[in-house]
Amino acid sequence: MRSRSLCLLVAASFASSCATTTAPLGRPAPALSSEQEARIGSQAESDLRREVGLLGDAALQRDVQQAGTRLAAAFAGPARPWHFAVLDVAAPNAFALPGGYVYLTRGLLPYLSRHSELAAVLGHQMAHVVRGDAVRAYLAGPGDVPADLGVFGTVARLFGRRAPLAVTRALFASHDPDSERQANALAAESLSRAGFDPASMNVVLETLDRLDVEEDQRGVPTWGVTHGRQIRLEPAPSPVPKPSAGDDYLEHVHNLLFGDDPREGLVRANEFLKPDLRVALTIPTEWDVSSDRTRMIANAPGHDAFLVLQSVPAILRREVSEIAATLMNRAGFIAPAGAATTLDGLPAFVGATAGPVEGLGDVRARVACLRSPRGVLLVAGVAPSARYPAVESQMTAAIRSIRAIPSGEAERILPERIDLETAHAGDTWDTIARRHGGVVMANLLAILNHAALDQPPPAGVSLKVVVASEK
User: How far apart are CA 84 and CA 102, in angstroms?
Assistant: First the structure.
């Protein structure tokens, strides 16, 4: 079974810092005033913030703000307020909104090794803002938004909000190679003026080019998808010197969550596990899986049939059959016909219903509502009426497979975090990976540390490694 992802959109709380900047546009920007840009950025930022949230690491947030403020002062020109923040998103990427809102994801930070590299990423996004690229991406027509937005394009709307179009544009915005090169050049000039090493730009780009992952568990795209690959700063600046002893960047990413958050669920073989809700269910073979902290979506091949696992608020002390009827009526379905039962010992209601879904037409659905150890869950298998008979047995089997995860099993599902250690004499990336239980492969450890797989780390060098640990 493949693991695809939910197009749940990134969000952030802004952290403001102000400086000045220039606007040397490579092509005409849309005719918007600075006040209009500020209003657009502020509204889009509010939409983003509401969907996911900011990484809860105050020290790391301050570090990013300080680097951004220092770099912003090197952009000469009319005054512009800047807002820098780190999003709690696993995909390694960075984004910018009109009005000077610049975001990095927590997933990007482990692939950087010093503050000049952090500044290079910030500078690249700031360049997109001052060049007008962020405004153009924001104002792009609906055709520039991917057609397949996962569950937000179809059944997810039945059980939650429609994702703001502005947020999808911000998240999926990509720029042509020429714009990327010009943004790199403008950022490098500002890096030099701010006292950062401009060669760090190519170090970052080369590192991110080596990643072969296109999206995280939520469907948030990685840098290579939105920024392109093999786009370097040319001519390349002189080689980057070794990090100075005073650069404490690695200390800021120590213990940072790495990769997808287990609280958003994970797939093992054909089973989807949600350890925080203490439930699991078997997914039909070859169905794609998407998840966030409150929802899981599995898509059938062809994406015309869906299996939804949704955490819902308990409605007073009502029976699960009443809760199921209320939720499905709100979604435009008729009250499900079914009966009370148990699923792995959990009190449940299982029934069938029908109704219209935008983009799918008339659909039929198999629905279960149950009380899990951690709250009330709705599970629904949804497909167009003509398609439903072909997938009904698969969806019913998935619903019937629901099981409660014992507390001991849930506690053994640990998040992966960045740790620091000193390389031993004779170490290779493979021996380091094995030393930490093979949490990640040797090649990924080499990428994290800007090294080739066949280039062993020198003894005594500080390294980033990935371990399974609560903290």
Answer: 5
Please return the burial class of 356, using the count of CB atoms within 10 Å of its CB with bins 0-12, 13-18 and 19+.
Answer: exposed
Write the pLDDT tens digit of every residue in 107-141: 999 999 999 999 999 999 999 999 988 888 877 75
Structure tokens at 331: 């979604």
Angstrom distance (rounded) from CA 282 to CA 353: 22
Decide the pairing of beta strands 101-105 and 79-87: parallel
Amino acid at 67: A
- The CA-atom distances, in angstroms, between 20 and each of 74, 129, 185, 445 are 8, 13, 18, 38
Give Cβ neighbours of residue 435 (< 8 Å, ≥ 6 apart): none
Amino acid identity at 386: A
Chain center to CA of 360: 27
**Structural contact between residues 281 and 92, judged by C-beta atoms closer than 8 angstroms:** no
- Reduced to 3 states (helix: H, G, I; strand: E, B; else coil), residue 202 is helix
Pick the closest to residue 216 from 91, 95, 109 (CA basis): 91
pTM of the model: 0.82
pLDDT single digits (tens) 13-27:
222 233 333 333 445
Nearest to 330 by CA among 279, 360, 305, 367: 367
| CA–CA distance, 107 with 133 (Å, rounded to integer) | 23
Bridge partners (DSSP) listed for residue 377:
311, 370
Pick left, alpha or beta for residue 320 (phi over 0 → left; psi -120 to 50 → alpha; otherwise beta). Answer: alpha
| CA gap 301, 201 in Å, rounded | 40
**Residue 423 in contact with residue 431, Cβ under 8 Å?**
no
The CA distance from 87 to 55, in Å, is 5
Name residue, tokens 């037409």: 361
* Encoded tokens for 364: 């039929």
Burial class of residue 112, CB neighbours in 10 A (0-12, 13-18, 19+): buried
Task: Give the length of the chain.
Answer: 471
> What distance in Å separates the CA atoms of residue 22 and residue 9, rounded to the nearest whole number?
30
Cα 104 to Cα 296, 304, 320: the distances in Å are: 25, 34, 42
In Å, how far are 89, 261, 465, 471 from 256, measured between CA atoms?
12, 11, 11, 9
User: How far apart are the C-alpha atoms of 421 and 459, rounded to whole Å?
Assistant: 11
Give the H/E segment covering residue 349: strand 346-357
Bridge partners, residue 380, by sequence: 308, 367
